[in-house]
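Reader question, answered in our methods column.
A reader sent in the components of a multi-part assembly and asked whether the whole thing could be modeled at once rather than chain by chain. We filled in our standard form and ran it. Here is what they sent:
COMPLEX SIZE: two components
ENTRIES:
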Amino acid sequence: GDSVTQMEGPVTLSEEAFLTINCTYTATGYPSLFWYVQYPGEGLQLLLKATKADDKGSNKGFEATYRKETTSFHLEKGSVQVSDSAVYFCALTPGSNYQLIWGAGTKLIIKP
Amino acid sequence: DGGITQSPKYLFRKEGQNVTLSCEQNLNHDAMYWYRQDPGQGLRLIYYSQIVNDFQKGDIAEGYSVSREKKESFPLTVTSAQKNPTAFYLCASSHSNQPQHFGDGTRLSIL
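And here is the structure of the entire assembly that came back:
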């Protein structure tokens, strides 16, 4: 069945460092891909999305490119801030129904 | 402002007691979802509903029940049959094939 695999956390970086959080997927058909962010004690917020191959989603300095050839959707940011500390979830929707398939989440810790 | 409202933010359950978590949305979304999140873990789907008066079990439905009598509302009841109910519960809604929008969650604990 469809699945999403994220790199295990926590990922600990210094402020202004470059961030990559890896996400790969398996899916039949043509899924849409998403990154969500969860700040401590809160619900999830949609960070960015991509609906077809080679699309690049971007928001708040974060970017991810839908790579069909490598079945990946890695999250990147050029210079992280302490306020980026959160848990990041990669997810896909198969396109044939409403459900989301979730990765396990990656906790990001940014130190000043 | 449109959004999803979950209440209460914190809830305590006594042994053998049923409790109901509220979820209301004013986004006019067709679909609504309930997830459970345990500390340091991802989301697991409990129930979802694509239209009023219809809902389907997710991956961990045992010990939970839902209703969808109105488009705006999708309450979740945690029954006494759920032996380990302590968790963070998240409600979400969406249009077909669109991103899900989440509420701020309800944290359930056992007294």
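What stands out: Chain B touches chain A through 24 residues (CB under 8 Å). The first strand of chain B starts at residue 4 and ends at 7.
Send us your own complexes using the same form.
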